[in-house]
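Reply to dn_fold:

You asked what the input looked like. This is it:
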Amino acid sequence: MKTCTELQTMAVSYQEICAGADPWLPLGNFMNDFFGNFTEQRAELLLEPLQLPDDPSEHELRWAVFCIASVEYLSLRYDLPIPAWINYPAYRLCLDEAWYQSPGAHKPNVRERLQRDTPEPFARRNVYCGGRVFANKYELAAELRQRRSA
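and this is what came back:
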């Protein structure tokens, strides 16, 4: 766990996942920094390359692909420079089989929705997580306030 002045980068989050943390805990901490605590340092939160294990387990590989897709997606979504490491051969990963990151993914209609709504950087890598995987609660709250005041 980082202190309030240390950045929870995507690379740090991936290391914590590889060390056994429930993936959504470090990713949630990353999201808090990206969307709330350090919005002026968003590019820095994505800049450092992931440190991939020499022989990753299926779990580590899936989450590496998810994190790589996340860096690309967030860079595009927030008009940030895409880190150069994304294009290095070691990071051009794609899962052989589709991975559906959703509790209801065993249902065909949920899989169809995930395939339809998943952003391209994830879908291209065979990861299906839907369109709200990185929903920004601060932006959503502002939109809700704006709708209520209209």
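The chain has one domain: 10-149.
Hope that clears it up.
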